[in-house]
């Protein structure tokens, strides 16, 4: 079977809700990433055989197959097809898996895996908030209710359950959140993100454009202290999680160009990384966010590796309890985890985060001269993807 190589990896800098990317239509923002991949690789646009794009809230401006709309908004020709994927927060990580599987099978040679989410213009959960009438419009079906009677699937509940089950205190979570901001701020100052970020025009929600370029993640709070984070109100009475220890609502897009050996020859480029292993599992939908823990163990077994063989880890910071519990369960080295900060500081643009994290992981492996990287993230419904890559 052919190998899957990543030859391009880019992302926009994250925009806060209502911030510097709020004026971008999500299809146009995603198109900027597609165009940047063409620029970075020098690929003939007509050689792209498919665009697989993750997006969670596929409603409003992100409805109607946002992948196809992004293609039509880009320099790609009409002949390039596109499809949109929803595996919740892992949508664009799954897009990468689908792209890799396509080129490994030989069915295609050059595929773009991408993701986009404008959480300003298409608010989180909007697609499940249509007015319910006579029972219609409720996501939880009667059969699911019978299997999980009276249970409200909630990521917030899951985060609190993980904190309790793994003995994580409020202070543990606050300290981790502070570290995320500190690492992200340090990485920004050192220019660690420069090679991966696609500069785009800052466009405010009211349509204002002043010619400035958006080149830095907007959510980083470089002046955060343990005291300021500790002053944030708990989400639930008696809980441990706050808005400060949860991922930031974010606008953003990211993309990866994935090829096999034939694709490498067509493009005449050197690969950045090789996809070494891919896993996806289902887990308990009630605790929901715990799935990356067994998924990582499963992936390592399948790959014949130990956690200590992995040089860098990207574990999405949906909530601080997730990466902290992951560290406890895997015995991983905390100094290798999210070394340039995570979603608590950088933002979590839902369907765009999988490609965003992989982009950061690839560039971090090159920056620090490391070999293997592992990415995983919790996903709604109790799911998790794991991807292991090798820097080339």
UniProtKB/TrEMBL annotation:
The keyword Transferase is assigned to this record: yes
KW rRNA processing (keyword) present: no
PROSITE patterns according to UniProt: THIOLASE_2
GO MF terms held by the record: acetyl-CoA C-acyltransferase activity
Similarity section: Belongs to the thiolase-like superfamily. Thiolase family.
Matching Pfam families: Thiolase_C (PF02803), Thiolase_N (PF00108)
Gene3D superfamilies with a match to the protein in the record: 3.40.47.10
Membrane-spanning ranges: none
Organism in which the protein naturally occurs: Cupriavidus yeoncheonensis
Residues of the active site: 89 (acyl-thioester intermediate), 348 (proton acceptor), 378 (proton acceptor)
Thiolase C-terminal domain mapped to chain residues: 270-391
Protein name: 3-ketoacyl-CoA thiolase
Domain Thiolase N-terminal intervals: 5-261
EC number: 2.3.1.16
Keywords: Acyltransferase, Transferase
